[in-house]
Design a protein that fits this description.
- With 431 residues, this protein is of the alpha/beta class.
- The chain has 13 helices and 15 strands.
- The strands form three sheets. The chain has an eight-stranded mixed β-sheet, sandwiched between helices. A five-stranded parallel β-sheet has the order 10-9-13-14-15, with helices on one face.
- Helix 8 crosses helix 10, helix 8 runs parallel beside helix 11 and helix 11 crosses helix 12.
- It is elongated, with a radius of gyration of 24 Å.
- It starts with a helix and ends with a strand.
- Bound molecules: ligand SAJ.
């Protein structure tokens, strides 16, 4: 067994994790708990300061777990890249967002790769977890790493892609029990990756290349975006047929095979589902081809905020309500404190363009920076003004829907949050 394989097997290897967000911080803690000597690296000094004060800024990592890991395991946090010099493994978990023109922004992984290439990467295993388009690891990262040396990939150093599969805000599935897909530039890279990840994940799925591993992640999330697009279109169709889409879904999901429930909503939020298919679509554009499903689901999903505002205007007119809308829940999905790509922000944008006033309440969000304004979360009681329409955009579990519906006369429920409400006085409009 080669030297690195042995250090990975007996956990004497040192592991640097670059990017301490909702992927990198839990990952660094998992590798520390597995026995490795871990260096958590992030250029955001406020994150590093928070970690030094043993305060977690990631909801899936409690302060207690952070304190316990720092106390009982080998983990240090820094804003410099210097630990790379003494690391056997370097794992990259930095953002891969879209830029203003909705094209992939891989500048973060390029920058980090350039920083890594400043060190002697001989005998190291480098792994990318950030979601990228098919081919990016081999076409972009590998040339940067071999730029100023004559190291041979698979012999001298190793490069791997392993898609992150963390699901923020829910605890059933975690790094340990979620199968971990890995694909190396060479089979030796893949095998070293298997040994490494086997220390933190029960089930390792080896694929034939980094490109296959990159595409696996994109298939998973394009599948999700396309099916959300389908169910959103079905919601619009049911509205035209004067049918309740939520009743139809409940009936369809009784089919024990061949069906998987998705639910309509006010749009597509988060930093995965609206973003990942666009990475695949961009690669296809570079190849002068396209995915009809991605384009169609984007048209439908990104059109939902407009549809919601249009429906709200009809309700306001019908009930002769005032020109103000109260938004209940603004995060991109329930029970998380993340508003990235949230449909609520799109809806605020549309309301602002239509000169319709708005306010919001969200137990997870104190304020939203919007058009150089700071809009603060207001009490739900401030919405109990029955000349204004309230819209449920995010159905957090900690909302008391009985209390809310007892104090409103008209509500537009885009999440079927009021499905169990018995109050017959309130006018509930559904998606
Ligand atoms: N959404 C719908 N209808 C649905 C499901 C989701 O409108 O039936 C909306 C949500 O409201 C949200 C957006 O889609 O605005 C994304 O929601 P999500 O449930 O997909 O949550 P994410 O963005 O946190 O996606 C993550 C992904 N995990 C990774 O990429 C590693 C995704 O692959 C998971 O399937 C998803 O969590 C999950 O299952 O919750």
């Amino acid at each position: 067994m080669n030297g690195l394989a042995k250090k990975l097997t007996d956990k004497t290897a040192s592991v640097s994790v670059i990017g301490l967000g909702y992927i990198g911080l839990p990952l660094s803690i998992s590798f520390a708990k597995a026995g490795f000597n871990v260096f958590g690296i992030d250029i955001d000094n406020s994150k590093i300061q928070s970690l030094h004060e043993q305060n977690s800024y990631i909801s899936d990592v409690s302060d207690k777990e952070l304190k316990n890991t720092i106390k009982n395991y080998k983990i240090t946090f820094t804003s410099t890249y210097s630990p790379i010099i003494k690391s056997d493994v370097v794992i990259i978990c930095v953002p891969t967002p879209l830029n203003k023109t909705k094209d992939p922004d891989i500048s973060y992984i390029v920058k980090v790769s350039e920083e890594i290439s400043k060190f002697d990467i001989n005998k190291k295993l480098i792994c990318l977890e950030s979601t990228v388009y098919p081919g990016a690891t081999e076409e972009v990262i590998l040339p940067i790493l071999t730029n100023n040396n004559n190291l041979k990939i698979g012999d001298d150093f190793n490069l791997l892609f392993s898609p992150e599969r963390m699901d923020p805000g829910q605890s059933n599935w975690n790094l340990s029990n979620t199968p971990k897909v890995i694909g190396g530039i060479t089979s030796n890279c893949t095998e070293l990756g298997r040994i490494l990840y086997n220390s933190v994940s029960e089930n390792i799925i080896k694929v034939s290349s980094t490109k296959a591993a990159e595409m696996t992640k994109l298939l998973e999330n394009t599948f999700r975006a396309a099916n959300i697009g389908l169910i959103n279109e079905m919601a619009l169709i049911c509205k035209k047929l004067n049918l309740d889409i939520w009743e139809i879904i409940e009936a369809a999901k009784t089919k024990p095979y061949g069906y998987m429930p998705f639910y309509p909503g006010p749009g597509l939020g988060g930093h995965c589902i609206p973003v990942d298919p666009r990475y695949l679509e961009w690669k296809l554009e570079m190849l002068n081809t396209e995915s009809k499903f991605i384009k169609l689901s984007e048209d439908i999903n990104f059109g939902m905020p407009d549809y919601v505002v249009q429906s709200a205007e009809e309700i306001i007119k019908k009930h002769n309500l005032s020109n103000k809308i109260n938004i209940i829940g603004v995060t991109y999905k329930p029970n998380v404190s993340d508003i990235r790509e949230s449909p609520a922000i799109d809806i605020m944008q549309i309301l602002s363009e239509k000169n319709i006033k708005f306010a919001f309440n969200d137990p997870y969000i104190n304020k939203v920076e919007f058009e150089n304004l700071t809009i603060r979360s207001e009490s739900i009681e401030s919405f109990f003004n029955n000349k204004e329409l309230s819209i449920i955009i995010t159905d957090h579990a900690n909302y008391d829907w009985n209390y809310i519906s007892d104090n409103l006369e008209v509500i537009y429920d885009t999440r079927n949050a009021l499905r169990n409400i018995k109050n017959t006085k309130i006018n509930i409009y559904k998606l």
